[in-house]
Amino acid sequence: MCGRFALESDAMFLQRLLDLRGGGVNLDMDPKTRYNIAPSQLIAAVGSGRAFMARWGLIPRWAADARIGRRMFNARAETLFDKPSFRESARRRRCIVPMTGYYEWSETPGGKQPYFIRRADRQTAAAAGIWDEWQGKESCAVVTTEANAAVQRLHHRMPVLLEEEHWELWLNDSVEEPSLLRPLLKPSGADLEAYPVSRRVNSPVNDARECMEPAGESDQGELF
User: Fold this and answer.
1) Residue 30: predicted pLDDT
2) How many beta carbons lie within 10 A of that of residue 98, not counting itself?
3) Which helix (H) or strand (E) element contains residue 12?
4) Is residue 192 within 8 Å of residue 224, measured between CB atoms?
5) Is residue 5 within 8 Å of residue 102, measured between CB atoms?
6) How far apart are CA 199 and CA 222, in angstroms?
7) Residue 3 CB: number of other CB atoms within 10 A?
8) Any idea what the Cα angle at residue 182 is, between residues 185 and 62, rounded to 5°?
9) Which one, of 209, 208, 211, lies nearest residue 200 by Cα?
10) In which residue ranges of the chain is pLDDT below 70?
11) Are 143 and 133 in contact (CB under 8 A)?
């Protein structure tokens, strides 16, 4: 799953995504640097040729109550095009959610230990997402898949981190055929690193850089 992540503001990354679909300069939103983003909060997304802020937790446009979004902040890749809550957005309203990295928790004798997982090259990651609009406001979900061999030691799921060569296809709303899109939703093949961080990240009230800094003395992280 992906239930907490960080984003260090990266306007250049957003612009690269916009340029793929001819969106031009459209950065009227300001995705401020956040170190402990939690479901129900606003997150940055790029889709349909624009950058926008969306509530993290998908609320389908047919929903009778916004509370449905509380449990739909992740969408499983395996059922993305079949589940009624997600299938229309998966076909027609896909987006990319930029993230510096995400948090996962591992069971230890001393309790759950949080880890920060990010690209080893420190580049912003492009997480696959879907979005919808409910009562004039956007909401979205991050697509997850089976964890790759490295991440499995922490958790059996991980966000779909799209390869750069797949960004344009994922953002192309004219492509609706699941057979063309499913192959993109695979475990990440990028080199990732993970390291333990402070348990302060357990509370979304704490939103400072120390949330993603190594808990130990080394700042190199623990390479997968």
Assistant:
1) 65
2) 23
3) helix 11-20
4) yes
5) yes
6) 17
7) 16
8) 95
9) 211
10) 22-30, 216-224
11) no
What are the angstrom distances between the C-alpha of 197 and each of 104, 106, 107, 146, 211?
A: 10, 11, 14, 23, 7
pLDDT score recorded for residue 48:
86
Cα–Cα distance list, 86 to 38, 75, 188, 195, 206 (Å) = 20, 7, 22, 33, 31
pLDDT digits (tens, 9 = 90+) for 155-196: 999 999 999 999 999 999 999 999 999 999 999 999 999 999
Residues recognised as catalytic: 2, 104
Whether 103 and 4 have beta carbons less than 8 Å apart is answered as yes
How many other CB atoms are there within 10 angstroms of residue 42's CB atom?
A: 19
| Rounded CA separation 99/122 (Å) | 11
Residue type, 199: R
- What pTM did the predictor assign? 0.93
Produce one character per residue of 174-184: b if its CB has 16 or more CB atoms within 10 Å, e if not: eeeeeeebeeb
